[in-house]
Design brief:
The structure is a homodimer. Chain A is an alpha/beta fold. Chain A has one domain: Divalent-metal-dependent TIM barrel enzymes (TIM Barrel, Alpha-Beta Barrel). In chain A, strands 1-2-3-4-5-6-7-8 form an 8-stranded parallel beta barrel, surrounded by 8 helices. In chain A, helix 3 runs parallel beside helix 4 and helix 7 packs parallel to helix 8. The radius of gyration of chain A is 18 Å and the shape is globular. The first copy, chain A, starts with 12 loop residues before the first strand and ends with a helix. Chains A and B meet through loops of A and loops of B.
Chain lengths: 278, 278
């Protein structure tokens, strides 16, 4: 499996604020920086009540790169009015990314139980297309994140990297790319070839890591720390790097188990697992 | 969604013994028959301590077709000794299907956390190939069941219908086909075309129905009754029938919720949901 060398240092380590969800963003920033983490991906809930531009400056003052803003998306809905509301929320996300200094917004594209996936996919492409002028003006990209098929009911009708790549091709815009998360994609027999295709499209904007635990006891919040599960992390990183990716390796872990832990200890485990397994 | 007419009657309704798990097989057979169910798929645990040939006769005496035996598979392992043990178990399953009068054994193909999926897939194909002479002699087929990607860690490295079709093509044997279960496959953007391909391969041996609930609270045992979830059942049945399938619609529901219910009442719900939603 170990097809590339271990990472020599932490210079490409990014952690998502949701990974250490109990901490407010100011604490995350200080702790991440102190631990040697070099990038931060900001979840929008952590910005509530803050001056966003000042918060972006605070992060940079800690020496942290602002890697992504999470998240926009959720385009499909059964009424035009709800779809318009979703677009408004995405417009706010783009403004927030611009103010924060984040180069892109990660999209969890959405799905509606009972609405056909074909229709939801059409609404997703239409929704992204509607945002592109604002993206160009703001200098903010949109990263389509394919989600695991177990989220096809109500979170995303985009469930493989092939589908995300197809959308990138259909949208033909330099503002649209892909966020590849090993948790969602590791099982896919087409993963290597689709990562390569994503690279040829110059569309690979983000790379998220964690692990898949056996057994997984919760569909949403039981992700593993790297090395705890069965995902061939180093193999997938090799594919991503062969596709030209040189960005951050972003640690995004939703876990009731880890959120219940002392977050300083957890951050220490993240750094150690990153060195050993990514 | 309703691309085919509702089913005119129960003549193609089959229920899996595991769906009404609290009942011993003799009770299931009597109750299914009394409810108008016409087929039964037998899970091997229900045969423990029984004379299998006599049990098959009992099922037929109730007017039930013996549709499948569940299940064989679990071919991958990290040692040759464990793989040989898995083959032995599959040989017993083929013998049991023959004794019972079931035309095929459904395969949950297996996976090993930490072993590469590529290696597991190779071991699956090798395992199936090793069983083919016995299958031919016994007149029993093997039905590869692609499992949802959320089971790729430890239950199956075969996670799409395309992969199952690829294996059927690679194995080139009239003894090998596919079991298509809507729970595992509904999200797949290639589902319609791969069902058609499976039909062209003359390989579609079984069709399983249930539903996907939102939210799903357990990865294994929270399947929905048809109509409770978001799976476009009638659309998928239309595709399956367009591919030439004329076999049973098999109700396979793993559910702590339903297993805790009065099973007579549950069976009534199954029949009613079958008429309304399949």
């Amino acid at each position: 499996m170990n097809s590339v060398a271990p990472l020599p240092d932490l210079s490409r380590l990014c952690v998502h604020t949701i990974t250490t969800k109990p901490w407010p963003i100011e604490t995350s920033a200080a702790k991440f920086a102190a631990a040697g983490v070099k990038g931060i991906t900001v979840w929008r809930d952590t910005l509530a009540g803050r001056d966003i531009a000042k918060t972006g400056q605070l992060l940079r003052d800690h020496g942290l790169a602002v890697v992504s803003l999470c998240r926009g998306g959720f385009f499909p809905a059964t009424s035009a009015e709800q779809r318009a509301k979703a677009l408004d929320d995405n417009r706010r996300a783009i403004d927030e990314a611009h103010a924060l200094g984040a180069p892109h917004v990660v999209l969890v594209c959405g799905a509606v139980p009972g609405q056909s996936l074909v229709e939801s996919r059409k609404q997703i492409v239409d929704g992204i297309a509607a945002l592109l002028p604002q993206c160009a003006a703001a200098g903010v990209k949109l990263a389509i994140e394919p989600l695991h098929p177990m989220y096809a009911d109500n979170r995303s009708a985009v469930n493989t990297l092939a589908q995300a790549n197809d959308m990138v091709e259909a949208l033909r815009s330099p503002q649209v790319g892909v966020a590849a998360d090993v948790y969602h994609l590791w099982w896919d027999p087409a993963l290597e070839s689709e990562i390569a295709r994503c690279g040829r499209l110059n569309a690979l904007l983000a790379f998220h890591v964690c692990d898949w635990r056996t057994p997984t006891i919760d569909l949403l919040n039981d992700r593993g720390l790297m090395g705890e599960g069965c995902i061939p992390l180093r193999q997938i990183r090799a594919w991503v790097e062969a596709a030209g990716f040189r960005g951050f390796n972003e640690v995004e872990i939703f876990s009731h188990r880890f959120w219940a832990m002392d977050q300083d200890a957890f951050l220490g485990q993240i750094v150690s697992a990153y060195r050993q397994h990514v």
